[in-house]
What we know:
- It is a single chain.
- It is built from five helices and 16 strands.
- Strand 7 and strand 8 form a beta hairpin.
- The model has no long low-confidence stretch (mean pLDDT 96).
- The chain has a seven-stranded mixed beta sheet. A seven-stranded mixed beta sheet has the order 7-8-9-10-12-14-15, with helices on one face. It has a two-stranded parallel sheet with strand order 11-13.
- The chain is an alpha/beta fold.
Amino acid sequence: MKPSxxxxxxxxxxxxxxxxxxxxxxxxxxxxxxxxxxxxxRDKPLYVFVSHHHKDHFTRTIFTWASMFPYIRxxxxxxxxxxxxxxxxxxxxxxxxxxxxxxxVTVLRPGEVYEDTVLRASAFDxxxxxxxxxxxAHGMKVFHAGDLNAWIWxxxxxxxxxxxxxxxxxxxxxxxxxxxxxxxLAMFPVDPRLGRDFWEGANIFTRRFKVKNFVxxxxxxxxxxxxxxxxxxxxxxFARYANPEYGCYCALTEPYSVLLLNF
Length: 263
């Protein structure tokens, strides 16, 4: 089978590979109400990644999936673990619907790695909070940015604020580049709410790393349906930031749209 990437919504994707499935930053599925879960092979390991605890990247609902998938592993950031410490604490008296066996939850800080016989996941810092992740399996290298981006509001920020944001972003990219020079797949924020030059972070990233398949995300937070449609169109205007010398740029804007990956 060819690996595939299914877009759920906002920053959430399902990456299906021969030996495992990965879900990234599930928040909600406003169109299909979680129907994608029924298509996931329960006989394969399932890895659920959470980059950070912000409400558009995380919901405690994911912990209910443990009753559906016998080979599940949650890989979450330290700030997410703090947000749900009452659930994960050994000996917790919590009895609610999100109760989870802490042994299936791995907490990663930037610089830490989770590895088993199927998959290797490395956590790096973010310009917001939590982690971004590099996931390796079958020789593939997959990058999910979480909220790593050059968050520059040029219409509102001072030149010094812009400089500092770019410096911090560049330092994190340096850390990643010390370990990885190219990715088979990258999911990265391209958020038109930033205003002027909203695509700058993606432009820097696609010139710093060789990205075989680039998929934009984080363009669903407009004020209403019409603005979200406009934002999706702007985020997938690849001429603004694509590296013309390398890579394919893929517009997954409709929930449950799928990209087949030629790895």
